[in-house]
């Protein structure tokens, strides 16, 4: 059952998104998977996510992925499916638990607390075998359909639309690689996402 406060907040943000011409499907996570935001949003952190370790032949089932968030107590603000569908799991006025401990050399203030100042976007994707080693055994990885690996053009298109919307509403996020980053840049010793298969040149925010 959706928490009414989260559902109400998500519904409010839904209208803001619609005003900007962006379609978003809401999947409100339980309230304990986020907390009220108290800082100014200055960053976007990009991630990849799948359920390939458990279901290598069906790694992107939305219900499965939602249950992973709930089971492990983490979250993201947005999730972009292979077909480009944008899901909102935590409204932007709440802090999602997506980045964890880490650091940015140019932003020492954010050591281990970037969640409170960032928007998390999970793209449903699988990286290279090397990048997935800590999550997926090589034997399992070898059974994955190559079509499930890397990113789709529909995802890049939706990501650009979503980033355009986010930047308009959050002027403290500058359209550059210092403020729109990968999880691997914040937590290089723990994370590899969005990985080498993500094409940063397709992010339009840097060229506008």
Task: Walk me through this protein's architecture.
This protein has a single domain (4-206), classed as Lysozyme-like (3-Layer(aba) Sandwich), CATH 3.40.80. It has a six-stranded mixed beta sheet. Strands 2-6 form a two-stranded antiparallel sheet. 25% of the residues lie in helices and 15% in strands. The protein has 208 residues and is an alpha/beta fold. The protein is built from five helices and eight strands, in the order αβββαββββααβα. It starts with a helix and ends in a 22-residue tail after the last helix. A hairpin with a 5-residue loop joins strand 4 and strand 5. Residues 1-18 have low confidence and may be disordered.
**CATH topology heading:** Lysozyme-like
Mean pLDDT: 91
Helix fraction bin: 25-40%
- What is the domain tally? 1
Q: Classify the secondary structure makeup into a structural class.
A: alpha/beta
Overall 3D form:
globular
Distance between the termini: 41 Å
Task: Describe the structure concisely for a colleague.
The protein has five helices and eight strands. The chain is α/β, with parallel strands linked by helices.
Essential attributes:
208 residues, alpha/beta, Lysozyme-like, six-stranded mixed sheet, two-stranded antiparallel ribbon, 5 helices, 8 strands, disordered N terminus, Amidase/PGRP_sf
């Amino acid at each position: 059952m959706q928490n009414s406060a989260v559902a109400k907040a998500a519904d409010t943000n839904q209208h803001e998104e619609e005003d900007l011409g962006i379609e978003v499907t809401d999947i409100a996570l339980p309230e304990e998977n986020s907390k009220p935001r108290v800082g100014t949003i200055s960053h976007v952190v990009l991630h990849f996510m799948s359920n390939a370790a458990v279901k290598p032949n069906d790694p992107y089932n939305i219900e499965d992925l939602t249950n992973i968030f709930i089971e492990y107590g983490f979250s993201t603000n947005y999730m972009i499916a292979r077909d480009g569908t944008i899901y909102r799991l935590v409204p932007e006025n709440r802090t999602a638990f997506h980045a964890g401990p880490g650091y940015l050399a140019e932003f020492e203030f954010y050591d281990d607390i970037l969640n409170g100042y960032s928007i998390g976007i999970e793209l449903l994707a699988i990286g290279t075998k090397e990048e997935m080693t800590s999550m997926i055994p090589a034997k399992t990885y070898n059974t994955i359909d190559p079509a499930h690996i890397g990113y789709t053009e529909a995802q890049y298109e939706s990501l650009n639309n979503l980033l355009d919307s986010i930047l308009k509403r959050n002027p403290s996020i500058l359209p550059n690689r210092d403020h729109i980053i990968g999880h691997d840049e914040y937590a290089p010793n723990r994370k590899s996402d969005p990985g080498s298969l993500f094409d940063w040149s397709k992010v339009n925010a840097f060229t506008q």
